[in-house]
Amino acid sequence: MRETVGENTPGCQLRDILDRVGDKWSVLVLHLLGDGPKRYSELRRAIEGISQRMLTLTLRSLERDGLVERTVTPTSPPRVDYALTPVGATLSTEVAGLIAWAERHREYVAASRVRYDAS
């Protein structure tokens, strides 16, 4: 039996979580942070095509969901580091498998798209 998916139901809450962790930018941030804490500028350089605004929104959302923690070191200028929480680290492990799958099959998917678009 399928669960009803409406506002404030467990199904809706599950969908909200999957929307967050399945978002392309979140997947890439989680993957990069799996190697250890990073500064904002490191993340921005490593993620091709992400805007400053989108990276900020993604980090805030991951922080809000308890997957990433933000640490400010009072220097001049202040240093801000992002790291995975223990729960975020468990998700990063899962994301690593998804990234590995995408890397192994990207040529197949690209060729499939060409065949499909030609038909």
Observed structural traits:
mainly alpha; 5 helices; single chain; globular; 119 residues
Please, could you describe this protein's structure?
With 119 residues, this protein is mainly α. The chain contains 5 helices and 3 strands. It has helices spanning 10-22, 24-33, 40-46, 52-64, 86-118, and strands spanning 38-39, 68-73, 79-84. Strands 1-3-2 form a 3-stranded antiparallel β-sheet. A hairpin with a 5-residue loop joins strand 2 (68-73) and strand 3 (79-84). Helix 2 crosses helix 5 (86-118). The longest helix has 33 residues, at 86-118. It is globular. 13% of the residues are buried. The mean pLDDT is 90.
Measured by DSSP, the beta-strand proportion falls in 5-15%
Average pLDDT, to the nearest integer?
90
Q: How would a textbook summarize the main sheet?
A: 3 strands, antiparallel
In percent, how helical is the residue content? 55-70%
Q: Enumerate the strands of the largest sheet in spatial order, edge to edge or round the barrel.
A: 1-3-2
Shape descriptor reads globular
Straight-line N-to-C gap: 38 Å
By DSSP (H or I, 4+ residues per run), the number of helices equals 5
Low-confidence runs: none
- The computed structural class is mainly alpha
SSE series: HHEHHEEH
Gyration radius, rounded? 17 Å
Number of strands: 3
